[in-house]
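Standup, Tuesday
Yesterday: got the pipeline producing structure tokens again.
Today: sanity-check two examples.
Blockers: none.

Example 1:
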Amino acid sequence: MKFSMIKLFFLILLFGLNVQALQILQPKNDYKIIKQQLGQSNNTQSLSSKQLLTKLEKSAKSGDARAQFSLANMYQKGINVKTNPRLALYWYSQVAKQGYPKAQFILAKDYHQGINTNKDLEIALDWYEKSAEQDFVDAQYQLATMYSIGDEVVVDNTKAHYWYEKAAKLKHVRAQLSLAKIYDSGIGVEKNPLLAKHWYEKSIKQGDAQAQYYFANFSEREGYVNRAVDLYKKSAKQGLAIAQSYLANLYYQGYLVDQDDVNAFNWALLAAEQDDVHAQFLLGLIYRQSIQVERDLSKAVHWYQKAVDQGHAQAQYNLAVLYLKGIGVEKDIERAISLYEKSANQDYARSQYALAQRYFRGEGFDRDDKKAVEWLLKASKGGHALAQYTLALSYKLGQGVEKDIEQEYFWYQKSADQGNLEAKYHLALLLVEGQGIEKDTTKALSILLNLSTQGHSSAQHQLHKIYSQGEVVDKDEALARIYLFKASEGGYAIAQYQLGQLYHKQSMPQEAMMWLTLSAKQNHSPAKQLLENIYKEIADKMAEDELKTINAELVAKKETKQINNSLLENQILSDKITSFIPNQNLITESLESNTKVMTNLEKLTMSATQGNPVAQHNLSTIYSLGSIVSKDNKKAFLLMKESAKQGLTQSQNGLAMMYLNGIGVESDYEKARFWASTSARKGNQEGKQILQYLISRLK
């Protein structure tokens, strides 16, 4: 039985090639001749395996290409003979010399990779080209790839395109995909979206997962969202890790698809198990801060570590934060710094900035302002807005570097260009002062007014000074007073003190004490001193305990949420957006906190009519509360909408909550989400909180 099986194998090996196989093995004009020769062998079944081998060798030596190719395979793979690489190479070369393209391709690979012989690129290229010129598609694709990526040859985009096109026309799916990518990117040819689309479509007809992924990417860039998402899913379902990882990110970010952490998690897990580093990082994020998937700090650390092991810079940074703060792991500053350094050495700007902070504070290192500035400079060049702002401050203060007002201005401008409010504020101050740089009061005033509409209390206080002094613009006591109120209600301690002073001079002790107390709570010494003096002044008229009780009641009614305008501190201390669930009472409180002291309703209405977004916001608030005019939610809504359209983030938040709870308009979840998202994209924290709550309601 065993002997019969061996004979059968030889028969298959020797005579089993059909016409189509012969065409692959040999030139088109020879296959009929060899087929005729096969028909002459009628008594093969009576031969032993040794006799078959002898006959095969005899045929091979006589120049029979089929026999030579069979012998080469036998010696290469050790089929019923001892493996003999030298003989395998010899017989492959004999077949190749007869012009058979498959043998030529195999021989080319042997010389290319140094299999069975010494590596010889020149000989390899010669055999690849001989095979490719006979339309052997694998050889054509191999040559195209070598010239495309510079695999031991000089990159030659023209030759790469030539061979990719040859193979693509013979339906080689990867060649079709490569050709599509060439036309898509314009590498070596003129960029041509139509031809790119043509070859992408050809490649996906064969169901190739990579082709589906790259065509999805092309479709996304061309604006065909539905087609893109469908192709990403098809590719991901075939198990392509890069597609699974990308799809996971789409769901996580809510881009092209509805935001869904559960779907993001499921796709990321499939990709992460295939060692996709981006998916591993995303799993760490989801386990760390998702509100739809159960949080698990130990699993977050596990997946961050997986990504760290593959050198993922952002994972190194995130894991460093956990070790620095002792979240989910035992606090370990040395480990945190080691991770920061690995990430920073990959030019990850956030880690570079974090190292600068460690050197400034002497945390994990001896304090070294010069090294801190070195890292700040690297992070700043990498586009980190907060590092740019901090670097500007370093040049201002001479901390770790020589004072340099030009460099200070330069880095403020860089940071301001990225939307950093503190940088914009300090830039405006330099432009007002004009010391060391060209004075530009018009630009400064424009910056301060813009900051004021965003609730920046320091800018509002600066506007108060400008309109009070009348040096930069015409003096305007009314406007100065308004901006003083704005800055005070924003929690700016100096403004609160000055407003308290103002009321004290006007013999309005209760109002004076209210604002002075708010300022004193922020440890503003002059406010504490003046407050103490006021207590002494009226001690004879009212018992001190009673006075403090009245003052406490006033403060409780008026005290507003303190706003910390320091972007620097916010980004250092904030690790994530906290959960926020607004209800009817919270909406009312939010609106009340935005109430502005404005007694001249006529002036406010005129300003709102002229399109002033702040006036529109304030008038909307008044109509919502019904404090000065009759309550009218419809008017409040319309005014809030007009203000929101002009970009005022406070109004965008207010409008989102109005849509959410149906205040002055029919409840509309999608519009609520739109306005909260608009505010959140500008970095507004309340907008982010509202948006996070809205997303959580999708569960």
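Example 2:
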Amino acid sequence: MNHLPHWWQNGVIYQIYPKSFQDTTGSGTGDLRGVTARLDYLQKLGVDAIWLTPFYVSPQVDNGYDVANYTAIDPSYGTMADFDALVTEAKARGIRIVLDMVLNHTSTEHEWFRQSLNKESPYRQFYIWRDGEPDALPNNWRSKFGGNAWQWHADSGQYYLHLFAIEQADLNWENPAVRAELKKVCEFWADRGVDGLRLDVVNLISKDQTFPCDLDGDGRRFYTDGPRVHEFLQEMSRDVFTPRKPDDRRRDVLHLAGALPAVRRAGRPRAVDDL
């Protein structure tokens, strides 16, 4: 097949926040049909791809970046049939689809997190739980949204890590089972015709496993651009984006992670090319 292997490097990618883009139902908020309705206009603008911010099932604590179900459409945006129609109509106009994918954390309403509240459940290891006391935090890391980055759960008798809102529990990427489930999520959307993924805050997925206190800062130096980020992304690239058959465009799928200085450190100047 003759197509650009690096279309994202010189293409025009238009970001769309569905909630405020166009309302077709009279609900007062935008929806997926509203995006489809404007594809002709986007084509005239010369758009090569549209990047959709999260429209997955979510309690909307963080405008959809608190995902409660990675493979279901939030009813406020429409249905999976609406999404499939959007993909079909976009491709008919030569427009690719890129999705925002939030893999550092989930909503605390996600079924994985609910299961993790049981210490005996295998899902306990899907998140970062640490011992402590109600008035004695595991460390002094700060949340991006203010306050400490740990939330006490009385029934569990432990804290869980949330680098963002209390309702956004960080996933434990050190657990292979977590990575396996996230690969399934990416495969689900790739199989529905998605051309790319923008991996939100993916440079935070590798934490210092000693979870030390930061005497000189807010803790970010112990979880930003961590030692296994490149390894984790290589694994995703190999297992998710490798073609399964000759006509499979899967390897052409973009996994845009934004700035990843960790993979350009001394001795690995071309590490990004391995992704």
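Quick observation on example 2: The chain has eight helices and twelve strands. Residues 111-168 form a domain with the Oligo-1,6-glucosidase; domain 2 fold (CATH 3.90.400.10).
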